[in-house]
Please model this.
Amino acid sequence: MHDRSDSAVRHDTAHAAHTTEGVMLTLTATCCWGMFPLVFKTVAHIPALEVLAHRSAWSLVFVVLIMLAVGRRREIISRSLYAPRTLVAMFLSATAVAVNWGIFIWAVSHNVVLQSSLGYYISPLVSVVLGVVLLRERLGIAAWTAVGMATLGVLVMIFNFGMVPWVSLGLGVSWALYGLARKTAPVGSLPGLYLETLLLLPLALGYIFWLGFYEGTGIFGGEIIDSALLAGTGLVTALPLLLFARATRILRLSTIGLLMYIVPTAQFILAVFVFDEPFTRVHLASFALIWLGLIIYGWGTARMRAPSPAV
Model:
Protein backbone atom coordinates (compact mmCIF):
# COMPACT_ATOMS: atom_id res chain seq x y z
CA MET A 1 0.00 0.00 0.00
CA HIS A 2 2.83 2.35 0.94
CA ASP A 3 4.67 1.64 -2.33
CA ARG A 4 1.54 2.32 -4.32
CA SER A 5 1.06 5.65 -2.51
CA ASP A 6 4.66 6.69 -3.25
CA SER A 7 4.15 5.76 -6.88
CA ALA A 8 0.99 7.84 -7.04
CA VAL A 9 2.81 10.83 -5.51
CA ARG A 10 5.63 10.53 -8.05
CA HIS A 11 3.08 10.29 -10.86
CA ASP A 12 1.23 13.39 -9.62
CA THR A 13 4.50 15.30 -9.29
CA ALA A 14 5.59 14.37 -12.81
CA HIS A 15 2.16 15.30 -14.17
CA ALA A 16 2.24 18.67 -12.39
CA ALA A 17 5.73 19.40 -13.75
CA HIS A 18 4.59 18.44 -17.26
CA THR A 19 1.56 20.72 -16.98
CA THR A 20 3.73 23.57 -15.66
CA GLU A 21 6.00 23.16 -18.66
CA GLY A 22 3.02 23.40 -21.01
CA VAL A 23 1.71 26.52 -19.24
CA MET A 24 5.10 28.27 -19.37
CA LEU A 25 5.53 27.42 -23.05
CA THR A 26 2.09 28.81 -23.85
CA LEU A 27 2.65 31.95 -21.77
CA THR A 28 5.93 32.69 -23.55
CA ALA A 29 4.39 32.14 -26.99
CA THR A 30 1.31 34.23 -26.25
CA CYS A 31 3.34 37.14 -24.87
CA CYS A 32 5.43 37.12 -28.06
CA TRP A 33 2.31 37.07 -30.24
CA GLY A 34 0.77 39.86 -28.22
CA MET A 35 3.68 42.10 -29.17
CA PHE A 36 3.61 41.11 -32.86
CA PRO A 37 1.84 44.30 -34.00
CA LEU A 38 4.93 46.24 -32.91
CA VAL A 39 7.16 43.90 -34.90
CA PHE A 40 5.12 43.95 -38.10
CA LYS A 41 4.60 47.71 -37.97
CA THR A 42 8.28 47.91 -38.94
CA VAL A 43 7.48 46.29 -42.32
CA ALA A 44 4.04 47.89 -42.80
CA HIS A 45 5.39 49.85 -45.79
CA ILE A 46 6.01 46.57 -47.65
CA PRO A 47 3.02 44.83 -49.35
CA ALA A 48 1.43 42.25 -47.06
CA LEU A 49 1.78 39.38 -49.54
CA GLU A 50 5.50 40.04 -49.91
CA VAL A 51 5.93 40.07 -46.13
CA LEU A 52 3.99 36.80 -45.90
CA ALA A 53 6.23 35.15 -48.49
CA HIS A 54 9.40 36.22 -46.68
CA ARG A 55 7.94 35.27 -43.31
CA SER A 56 7.24 31.75 -44.58
CA ALA A 57 10.62 31.27 -46.27
CA TRP A 58 12.74 32.67 -43.45
CA SER A 59 10.78 30.70 -40.86
CA LEU A 60 11.94 27.50 -42.56
CA VAL A 61 15.54 28.70 -42.45
CA PHE A 62 15.40 29.27 -38.70
CA VAL A 63 13.51 26.03 -38.03
CA VAL A 64 16.18 24.03 -39.86
CA LEU A 65 18.93 25.85 -37.93
CA ILE A 66 17.15 25.01 -34.67
CA MET A 67 16.85 21.33 -35.62
CA LEU A 68 20.53 21.16 -36.51
CA ALA A 69 21.50 22.95 -33.30
CA VAL A 70 19.59 20.51 -31.07
CA GLY A 71 20.90 17.44 -32.89
CA ARG A 72 17.75 16.42 -34.74
CA ARG A 73 19.17 16.36 -38.25
CA ARG A 74 18.08 12.75 -38.78
CA GLU A 75 14.41 13.73 -38.48
CA ILE A 76 14.76 15.98 -41.52
CA ILE A 77 15.69 13.03 -43.72
CA SER A 78 13.52 10.43 -41.98
CA ARG A 79 11.19 8.69 -44.45
CA SER A 80 8.47 8.37 -41.80
CA LEU A 81 8.24 12.16 -41.60
CA TYR A 82 7.05 12.29 -45.21
CA ALA A 83 4.34 9.62 -44.88
CA PRO A 84 1.16 10.54 -46.80
CA ARG A 85 -0.98 10.80 -43.66
CA THR A 86 1.50 13.15 -42.03
CA LEU A 87 1.88 15.30 -45.12
CA VAL A 88 -1.90 15.70 -45.46
CA ALA A 89 -2.24 16.73 -41.82
CA MET A 90 0.62 19.20 -42.05
CA PHE A 91 -0.66 20.60 -45.35
CA LEU A 92 -3.91 21.47 -43.57
CA SER A 93 -2.11 23.10 -40.66
CA ALA A 94 0.27 24.95 -43.02
CA THR A 95 -2.69 26.29 -45.00
CA ALA A 96 -4.44 27.45 -41.82
CA VAL A 97 -1.38 29.20 -40.43
CA ALA A 98 -0.53 30.85 -43.77
CA VAL A 99 -4.05 32.29 -43.98
CA ASN A 100 -3.73 33.49 -40.40
CA TRP A 101 -0.35 35.12 -41.04
CA GLY A 102 -1.56 36.84 -44.19
CA ILE A 103 -4.67 38.32 -42.60
CA PHE A 104 -2.72 39.51 -39.56
CA ILE A 105 0.00 41.18 -41.64
CA TRP A 106 -2.67 42.95 -43.70
CA ALA A 107 -4.48 44.07 -40.53
CA VAL A 108 -1.34 45.60 -39.03
CA SER A 109 -0.36 47.40 -42.24
CA HIS A 110 -3.92 48.78 -42.66
CA ASN A 111 -4.26 49.93 -39.03
CA VAL A 112 -7.03 47.57 -37.98
CA VAL A 113 -5.24 45.85 -35.10
CA LEU A 114 -8.44 46.24 -33.08
CA GLN A 115 -10.16 43.83 -35.47
CA SER A 116 -7.19 41.51 -35.07
CA SER A 117 -7.67 41.63 -31.32
CA LEU A 118 -11.36 40.77 -31.70
CA GLY A 119 -10.44 37.80 -33.91
CA TYR A 120 -8.13 36.29 -31.31
CA TYR A 121 -10.73 36.85 -28.60
CA ILE A 122 -13.30 34.76 -30.46
CA SER A 123 -10.79 32.11 -31.55
CA PRO A 124 -11.04 30.05 -28.32
CA LEU A 125 -14.81 29.96 -28.70
CA VAL A 126 -14.42 28.87 -32.33
CA SER A 127 -12.24 26.05 -30.98
CA VAL A 128 -15.14 25.08 -28.72
CA VAL A 129 -17.48 24.87 -31.71
CA LEU A 130 -14.93 22.86 -33.70
CA GLY A 131 -14.64 20.45 -30.79
CA VAL A 132 -18.39 19.86 -30.95
CA VAL A 133 -18.59 19.56 -34.73
CA LEU A 134 -15.43 17.60 -35.48
CA LEU A 135 -14.47 15.85 -32.23
CA ARG A 136 -18.02 15.25 -30.96
CA GLU A 137 -17.30 16.93 -27.65
CA ARG A 138 -20.25 17.79 -25.42
CA LEU A 139 -20.74 21.30 -24.09
CA GLY A 140 -22.48 22.60 -21.01
CA ILE A 141 -24.86 25.53 -20.82
CA ALA A 142 -22.03 27.94 -19.96
CA ALA A 143 -20.09 27.11 -23.11
CA TRP A 144 -23.15 27.44 -25.34
CA THR A 145 -24.00 30.76 -23.67
CA ALA A 146 -20.47 32.02 -24.31
CA VAL A 147 -20.64 31.03 -27.98
CA GLY A 148 -24.03 32.72 -28.31
CA MET A 149 -22.78 35.97 -26.76
CA ALA A 150 -19.71 36.00 -28.99
CA THR A 151 -21.98 35.55 -32.00
CA LEU A 152 -24.14 38.42 -30.78
CA GLY A 153 -21.05 40.59 -30.35
CA VAL A 154 -20.05 40.00 -33.97
CA LEU A 155 -23.61 40.70 -35.15
CA VAL A 156 -23.56 44.05 -33.31
CA MET A 157 -20.61 45.11 -35.46
CA ILE A 158 -22.22 43.81 -38.65
CA PHE A 159 -25.50 45.65 -38.13
CA ASN A 160 -23.94 48.90 -36.93
CA PHE A 161 -21.07 49.16 -39.40
CA GLY A 162 -22.88 47.48 -42.28
CA MET A 163 -19.99 45.13 -42.99
CA VAL A 164 -18.77 41.72 -41.94
CA PRO A 165 -15.63 41.96 -39.75
CA TRP A 166 -13.79 39.55 -42.03
CA VAL A 167 -10.41 40.22 -40.41
CA SER A 168 -11.75 39.14 -37.02
CA LEU A 169 -13.61 36.12 -38.36
CA GLY A 170 -10.73 35.07 -40.62
CA LEU A 171 -8.19 35.23 -37.81
CA GLY A 172 -10.47 33.50 -35.31
CA VAL A 173 -11.40 30.61 -37.57
CA SER A 174 -7.94 30.08 -39.11
CA TRP A 175 -6.19 30.02 -35.73
CA ALA A 176 -8.74 27.63 -34.24
CA LEU A 177 -8.28 25.32 -37.23
CA TYR A 178 -4.51 25.50 -36.84
CA GLY A 179 -4.68 24.55 -33.18
CA LEU A 180 -6.97 21.63 -34.00
CA ALA A 181 -4.71 20.44 -36.83
CA ARG A 182 -1.60 20.52 -34.64
CA LYS A 183 -3.41 18.78 -31.80
CA THR A 184 -4.35 15.83 -34.00
CA ALA A 185 -1.28 15.70 -36.27
CA PRO A 186 0.82 12.49 -35.96
CA VAL A 187 4.10 14.39 -35.65
CA GLY A 188 6.11 16.16 -32.97
CA SER A 189 6.27 19.92 -32.49
CA LEU A 190 9.65 20.66 -34.10
CA PRO A 191 9.46 18.32 -37.13
CA GLY A 192 5.84 19.41 -37.59
CA LEU A 193 6.85 23.05 -37.76
CA TYR A 194 9.60 22.10 -40.22
CA LEU A 195 7.08 20.33 -42.45
CA GLU A 196 4.65 23.26 -42.33
CA THR A 197 7.21 25.79 -43.46
CA LEU A 198 8.65 23.35 -46.01
CA LEU A 199 5.23 22.91 -47.60
CA LEU A 200 4.83 26.69 -47.79
CA LEU A 201 8.28 27.17 -49.34
CA PRO A 202 7.49 26.63 -53.07
CA LEU A 203 4.80 29.31 -53.12
CA ALA A 204 6.84 31.65 -50.94
CA LEU A 205 10.02 31.39 -53.00
CA GLY A 206 8.09 31.52 -56.26
CA TYR A 207 6.49 34.81 -55.28
CA ILE A 208 9.74 36.27 -53.93
CA PHE A 209 11.65 35.50 -57.15
CA TRP A 210 8.76 36.76 -59.26
CA LEU A 211 8.90 40.06 -57.40
CA GLY A 212 12.66 40.22 -57.82
CA PHE A 213 12.67 39.59 -61.55
CA TYR A 214 9.48 41.33 -62.67
CA GLU A 215 8.71 43.98 -60.06
CA GLY A 216 12.27 45.09 -59.34
CA THR A 217 11.92 44.94 -55.56
CA GLY A 218 15.05 42.83 -55.11
CA ILE A 219 15.11 39.18 -54.15
CA PHE A 220 15.71 39.88 -50.46
CA GLY A 221 13.99 43.26 -50.20
CA GLY A 222 14.49 46.69 -51.69
CA GLU A 223 16.80 48.05 -48.98
CA ILE A 224 19.33 46.47 -46.63
CA ILE A 225 17.24 47.42 -43.61
CA ASP A 226 14.16 45.90 -45.25
CA SER A 227 16.07 42.69 -45.91
CA ALA A 228 17.07 42.46 -42.26
CA LEU A 229 13.53 43.17 -41.07
CA LEU A 230 12.00 40.60 -43.43
CA ALA A 231 14.48 37.96 -42.28
CA GLY A 232 13.67 38.89 -38.70
CA THR A 233 9.99 38.09 -39.26
CA GLY A 234 11.03 34.48 -39.81
CA LEU A 235 12.91 34.34 -36.53
CA VAL A 236 10.15 35.88 -34.43
CA THR A 237 7.64 33.59 -36.15
CA ALA A 238 9.52 30.33 -35.70
CA LEU A 239 10.29 30.58 -31.99
CA PRO A 240 6.78 31.17 -30.52
CA LEU A 241 5.21 28.77 -33.04
CA LEU A 242 7.63 26.09 -31.90
CA LEU A 243 6.73 26.73 -28.26
CA PHE A 244 3.00 26.69 -29.04
CA ALA A 245 3.22 23.49 -31.08
CA ARG A 246 4.93 21.78 -28.16
CA ALA A 247 2.35 23.13 -25.71
CA THR A 248 -0.58 21.80 -27.76
CA ARG A 249 0.76 18.28 -27.22
CA ILE A 250 0.89 18.77 -23.45
CA LEU A 251 -2.16 20.82 -22.48
CA ARG A 252 -5.84 20.43 -23.20
CA LEU A 253 -7.28 22.69 -25.90
CA SER A 254 -9.51 24.35 -23.30
CA THR A 255 -6.50 25.27 -21.14
CA ILE A 256 -4.63 26.64 -24.14
CA GLY A 257 -7.75 28.59 -25.09
CA LEU A 258 -7.80 30.35 -21.71
CA LEU A 259 -4.12 31.29 -21.90
CA MET A 260 -4.55 32.52 -25.46
CA TYR A 261 -6.53 35.50 -24.13
CA ILE A 262 -3.16 37.15 -23.45
CA VAL A 263 -2.71 37.67 -27.21
CA PRO A 264 -5.85 39.69 -27.95
CA THR A 265 -5.57 41.63 -24.69
CA ALA A 266 -2.07 42.82 -25.56
CA GLN A 267 -3.16 43.64 -29.11
CA PHE A 268 -6.21 45.50 -27.81
CA ILE A 269 -4.01 47.65 -25.57
CA LEU A 270 -1.61 48.38 -28.43
CA ALA A 271 -4.44 49.23 -30.85
CA VAL A 272 -6.22 51.66 -28.53
CA PHE A 273 -3.40 53.21 -26.50
CA VAL A 274 -0.36 52.98 -28.80
CA PHE A 275 -1.70 53.00 -32.38
CA ASP A 276 -4.63 55.28 -31.43
CA GLU A 277 -7.21 53.36 -33.46
CA PRO A 278 -10.83 54.53 -32.99
CA PHE A 279 -12.73 52.73 -30.24
CA THR A 280 -16.41 53.62 -30.50
CA ARG A 281 -19.46 52.70 -28.46
CA VAL A 282 -20.23 50.01 -31.00
CA HIS A 283 -16.78 48.52 -30.45
CA LEU A 284 -17.34 48.69 -26.69
CA ALA A 285 -20.71 46.91 -26.94
CA SER A 286 -19.28 44.20 -29.20
CA PHE A 287 -16.18 43.61 -27.08
CA ALA A 288 -18.25 43.69 -23.86
CA LEU A 289 -20.51 40.90 -25.11
CA ILE A 290 -17.52 38.77 -26.08
CA TRP A 291 -15.67 39.49 -22.83
CA LEU A 292 -18.78 38.54 -20.84
CA GLY A 293 -19.12 35.36 -22.87
CA LEU A 294 -15.51 34.46 -22.15
CA ILE A 295 -16.01 35.09 -18.43
CA ILE A 296 -19.05 32.80 -18.42
CA TYR A 297 -17.13 30.14 -20.33
CA GLY A 298 -14.17 30.37 -17.94
CA TRP A 299 -16.49 30.15 -14.94
CA GLY A 300 -18.25 27.13 -16.41
CA THR A 301 -14.96 25.39 -17.17
CA ALA A 302 -13.62 26.02 -13.68
CA ARG A 303 -16.85 24.78 -12.11
CA MET A 304 -16.72 21.54 -14.10
CA ARG A 305 -13.14 20.89 -12.94
CA ALA A 306 -13.79 21.68 -9.29
CA PRO A 307 -13.83 18.57 -7.05
CA SER A 308 -17.22 17.47 -5.81
CA PRO A 309 -17.83 18.02 -2.07
CA ALA A 310 -17.64 14.95 0.13
CA VAL A 311 -20.98 13.59 1.32
